[in-house]
Amino acid sequence: MRHCLLGAFWPGLGNASGARPLYLLICYRCGVYGLINVAVRDLVKTNFGDEAWESICRESGVTESAFIRMDQHDDAITFALVDAASVVLGISTSEVLQAFGEYWTKFTAEEGYGPLLDAAGDSLPELLQNLDEMHARIGTAFPNFNPPSFECLNVTEDSMDLHYRSVRDGLDDLVIGLIRGLGTRFSVEVTVEQTASKGDGEDHSVFHVQWH
Asked: What is the CATH architecture assignment of 23-211?
């Protein structure tokens, strides 16, 4: 498993009112912020307890230096945490990644970053349609910035096809989780069906998103 970062659904996480910019998860060519590793830690502790987290740290070999919020760290540290969580918790890496994607919106709301998404849209479809514009506005503020592209087609009152393009592979689970987390943010039930995958030889991935 060599994803860049994490993505989807973990039951019982509650509503979220905002989020750290999505690009910190999916846009850096190398290195991630320690805040992401902190969120992985909090997710595990909240749902499985301190003992499970300690086992994951031992399995992964990750030390506390990886949890300084605004320091950048090698992607491999987060990959190791995800792989170790899969082993210790007895679930697939896909489930871990999806769980983190949804949890990320809750966690970062508590970190105080809700206004960044508030400005991007007042509803789930509006925000999804404004992701590229949001990335363009903030791109000059971060080094090594390489955002993905999101194109919304066949938009109706309750559905759309979300086309996801990125130079990085293996992030489809992340996207699924973030969409579901954003659905929670807007208090709507979201269904995400992947209809095309870059990993299967397509030039980009496509998700059919429905909400009600």
From this structure: Alpha-Beta Complex (3.90)
Asked if residue 69 lies in contact with residue 110, where contact means CB atoms within 8 angstroms, the answer is no
This prediction's pTM:
0.75
151: its two tokens: 């194109």
User: 63-78, pLDDT tens digit by residue?
Assistant: 766 565 555 556 677 7
The C-alpha atoms of residue 190 and residue 210 are separated, in whole angstroms, by 6
In angstroms, the CA 171 to CA 35 distance is 19
